[in-house]
Design a protein that fits this description.
The protein is an alpha/beta fold. The protein has a single domain, classed as Nucleotidyltransferase, domain 5. 43% of the residues lie in helices and 25% in strands. The chain has five helices and five strands; from the N terminus they run αβββααβαβα. It has a five-stranded mixed sheet. α4 links the parallel β4 and β5. The radius of gyration is 15 Å and the shape is globular. The relative contact order is 0.15.
């Protein structure tokens, strides 16, 4: 029964048109582990949990989305992590990448030091 519910949920997600995504990682300071997440910003739901922060992991998510559905994506927010930028630029287009302000300012401060 659980597998059927998961299958239905996955089928529904694949039918949705997603306009705004966010790639982020959450960490647990107690055990120093990181969880990578792909969020649907309009619905506030998790769309995908990549295995790691490598280009191939995010590319696998994009490969599961049809080209038609990818065309509905208007913007993808992310940090300045190269593999995220590469996978997005190669598949969706670099013009849809939005670097979040926190990481821009953090990078600016580090560069100015």
């Amino acid at each position: 029964m659980t597998k059927q519910a998961v299958d239905r949920g996955v089928a529904c997600k694949q039918q949705e048109n997603i306009h705004y995504l966010d790639f982020d990682e959450k960490s647990s300071k107690k055990v120093h582990t990181y969880l990578n997440l792909v969020y649907n910003l309009e619905k506030g739901t998790i769309e995908h949990i990549p295995n790691d922060r490598k280009t191939d992991s995010l590319q696998a998510y994009f490969d599961c989305i049809s080209e038609e559905k990818r065309s509905f994506i208007k913007a993808l927010a992310m940090d300045m992590w190269g593999p995220y930028i590469k996978a997005t630029a190669d598949t969706i287009g670099s013009d849809k990448i939005v670097i979040d302000l926190f990481h821009v300012m953090k990078h600016k401060v580090v560069v100015s030091l």
